[in-house]
């Protein structure tokens, strides 16, 4: 996000998965983890990578950075899969259990997926308060940006999809 005071969230793209009266959970999808790919992660977990492609592992957020999450298409569901919707329309699903990793490695997983380590979490009403400050921008969830846009282009594409040219953004604000 432009001008974000916390450098961990500079130009961050966060897929918001839960936002209710108890708080919010989001998975960062705008930055890749250095030094590890999907097949390497599978090997660390003693899962045979099989024919799984070697995709990026994303920096999901600063909370529990060793905990994994898979954001995926809704054509697969497993143990503890959470379906994320916009109104009544399904957007994507989130699974934080190892069964989805095994399914992907075995070629029976979701058609589209993103792997991330860690998450961003907010307590009760905390995200609502943060959203009133400079540096945050809420964009509609779009499957195309989540699954079909390269990681380093998701930040700019999120603005463009809302009709905003990100090159015209400034990190400074004023008071009227």
From TrEMBL:
Q: Which organism is it from?
A: Sphingomonas lutea
Family per record:
Belongs to the UPF0301 (AlgH) family.
Transmembrane intervals: none
Tell me what this protein is called.
UPF0301 protein H9L13_07365
Report the GO terms under cellular component.
cytosol
Against Gene3D superfamilies, the record matches this protein to: VC0467-like
- One Pfam short name: DUF179
């Amino acid at each position: 996000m432009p001008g974000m005071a916390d450098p961990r969230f500079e130009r961050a793209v966060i897929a918001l998965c839960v936002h209710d009266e108890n708080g919010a959970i989001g998975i960062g999808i705008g930055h890749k983890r250095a030094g590890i790919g999907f097949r390497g992660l599978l090997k660390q977990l003693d899962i045979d990578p099989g024919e799984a492609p070697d995709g990026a592992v994303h920096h999901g957020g600063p909370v529990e950075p060793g905990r994994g999450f898979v954001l995926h298409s809704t054509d697969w569901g497993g143990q503890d899969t959470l379906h994320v919707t916009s109104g009544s329309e399904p957007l994507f699903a989130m699974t934080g259990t190892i069964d989805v990793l095994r399914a992907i490695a075995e070629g029976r997983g979701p058609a589209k997926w993103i792997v991330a380590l860690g998450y961003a979490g907010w307590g009760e009403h905390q995200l609502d308060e943060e959203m009133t400050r400079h540096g945050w921008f809420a964009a509609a969830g779009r499957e195309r940006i989540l699954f079909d846009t390269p990681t380093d282009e998701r930040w700019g594409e999120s603005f463009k999809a809302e009709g905003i040219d990100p090159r015209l953004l400034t990190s400074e604000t004023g008071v009227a």
